[in-house]
């Protein structure tokens, strides 16, 4: 059976039509709630919160982080906001120290190790210069778990070496070098600084399915000039380097404050917006992200004061375990409240890095269904035209498996002023925050949140999501050189788009219009999942895929391999399974659309 078109045409569409499904997703008029909350955001109050939060160093699980959490909770409770503090054991890793030396020389550069690096009292090996990150072998991780190293044989010279490479330390290069038998990796920062980072490709608390991806390779980082010096030494002959790394990796009790701002007539099925940002950070974390934490506190308090104007709820979470636990807090919340998020969650908005001094360029990372919302919000409040990008996997995007669409606003500094040069360094301090800019950035969130919590309809566009899906299907088929046939999926997506185009949602005799509109999410969720999650909605993937339909990442293998090779056939088996998942998701979305037209939104 090709599609549900036959079933749909048999549905008697009602005469009473109200909401145009594909209308502009953003409401033409700003809601009174949005205007009131925006005008209540004061730079002085943001400053007061941020001053306290950034006074502490906040690695997750530390006394500093807990003091910041206590401050947030007290500020909320003083304003009468209901807030709960969850506690759980998180698997985190703090870099302690590193040294990089050339035995027999007095060269002793500044060095750091990275969160989740392997630990060693000292390993030695001849240095192998592998250039830049782009020169490293490509490492594919199938649908999340299986390592496939392309052309591993051409990198047999890596075994037993200390590899140096220019670029920020990253998880996949770490895993690739480990698989190739390196004894240590030294990343040379492209700039004259050291940036704290994390090198595991597990996501959240590792599971038995993902623990094999915890690195064992010792990883260090040195500054650009020291990398130049080491390379100069290598010009006069082979150089042996000794690397030692100390990390504090293990379980720590973590606390996660969650505030719930609910409409006055809410019940335990009231849908809500989830807004999150990380409370932990490197060092004093000024713009990454004490400033955002302050914005979250103030928005929560101001929405709470006006909750009688809300139709839907706002849940705000300050995640621990972001920087040294690879999103341990948001992932724990997703795992623990999956069922509630699946039935009540409307959207996940992430806030990070806003309020930077001298910011002048707005941007946004959104899933396709929210692109128009982001564009219109920035146009209305920031006066700039933006082209939103796809969210990466560098923040707390822990809700893709739940199917929540994503939105994050960005506001960046000119590169001519050094860009975000203090990011993940001890220089990310309170003085890097501009509180007038932070107010402007906060107002973007206030406006977008208000569209969701106060509007009669939701500011999402299924049409945009389906259009992005069809583009992605075509691109994946093309990447396979035509070997992977995705025409059935394209046909079903196009039928669904046709079914929705120009149709209107019926106001059922008993159902409220807003409730019917929320049925749109039942169409969106299965599509969001295949667009952002490879393989399994319930088990976090490595978080390395940047393109839509990540489960079809192996399509390119078909174009690059001989059809009778193991590699081709293994890839094809994987792709057929993922294609089945995509077809099932499209059917689920189509069923949800039929239910909606029949006035029976599924919960
Ligand atoms: Zn951050």
Fold and architecture overview:
Strand 11, helix 7 and strand 12 form a beta-alpha-beta unit. The chain has helices at about 5-10, 30-40, 45-55, 65-80, 170-180, 225-235, 285-305, 330-335, 340-345, 370-380, 435-455, 460-480, 485-500, 515-520, 520-530, 555-560, 565-595; strands at about 15-20, 85-100, 110-115, 120-130, 140, 145-150, 160-165, 185-190, 220, 240-260, 270-280, 315-320, 345-350, 360-365, 405-410, 505. The protein starts with a helix and ends in a 6-residue tail after the last helix. By secondary structure, the protein is α/β, with parallel strands linked by helices. It is globular and about 75 Å long. It folds into three domains: about 5-20 and about 460-595, no CATH class; about 30-90 and about 250-455, Aminopeptidase (3-Layer(aba) Sandwich), CATH 3.40.630; about 105-240, Glucose Oxidase, domain 1, CATH 3.50.30.30. Helices cover about 35% and strands about 20% of the residues. Strands 2, 3, 4, 7, 8, 9, 10, 11, 12, 13, 14 and 15 form a twelve-stranded mixed sheet that branches. Strands 1-16 form a two-stranded antiparallel sheet. The protein has a two-stranded antiparallel sheet with strand order 5-6. The structure holds zinc ion. Zinc ion (ZN) binds near residues 278, 289, 352 and 353.
